[in-house]
Amino acid sequence: MTGRTDTTDVLVLGGAGVDTIIPVPELPLPYADSYMIDSGIRTRAGQTGDFVALGLARLGLRTHHLDLLGDDPEGDLVRALHREHGIALTALPQPAGTKRAVNLVGPDGRRLSLYDTSRAHPDDRFPEGRLRALAAASRHVHVTITQPCAHALPVLRETGRPFSTDLHDWDGENPYHEPFAFAADVVFLSAANLTDPERTMRRIAERGRAGTVVATAGAEGALLLADGELTRIPAVTPPAPVVDSNGAGDAFAAAFLYGRLSGEPPRRCARYGAVAGAYACTVPATRADAIGRDELLREASEPSR
């Protein structure tokens, strides 16, 4: 747009909250009256929107996060995380409180997440004027699938800003995810619950706007559908032992968007995502961290391992 001045590289919508991390001896966890958690139970800020915003900021992108937060200790943790990492945050009042979840984390890094859905309401909305202004000042918008982001999609379309979304472990059928899948220009999702990932990816591209669809598959790498061509992206060997897979998909999305906004071709963007996702698996669940730009570029330049 002629004459426009962007003040933000990426606006992240939604997905702010806190997780309580409980290390468990195995998953699924057998029934017992009680378990002794010797390594401790900890609560830290960081859900999907927070992790994407953190990943973008660590890669040097000007990042702004918009969401609803409660006036509660959990909201204070989220605000502190953003202050610590220099991430601009617009926190709108949420009377129901800040979103929370409990993550059971096994010794192999797998997790089971329990989400408190009482901290949101179907009628939650971002003020349209605020949303338009922040989107108009951004090069790109990343939309989480948490409330109230579904209501923001028509407004984003009207602003003309390109945007991405992450469908996480969508099964390809749940109708809640479809407005996100068919509205975004870039779609990320996990292949975990897909019986035919390629078919789902092509359906997203054919029915929606997405020119790029990425399905991540953990240690099996990822599938990239760009301009109708399907490519398998190899996984990257993590630089340290895997301790927690939480946040790996968010890290992948952040690094992919970094590449996209830097003008890199889709395959290079996906390589960045694979490197960042592997790094995220080495970060303990009790800590919020992401790969830095120098390390990302260095690791991405190495041959696939």
TrEMBL record:
Q: Which UniProt keywords apply?
A: Kinase, Transferase
Domain spans labelled Carbohydrate kinase PfkB: 187-288
InterPro entries in UniProt: Carboh/pur_kinase_PfkB_CS, PfkB_dom, Ribokinase-like
What name does this protein carry? Ribokinase
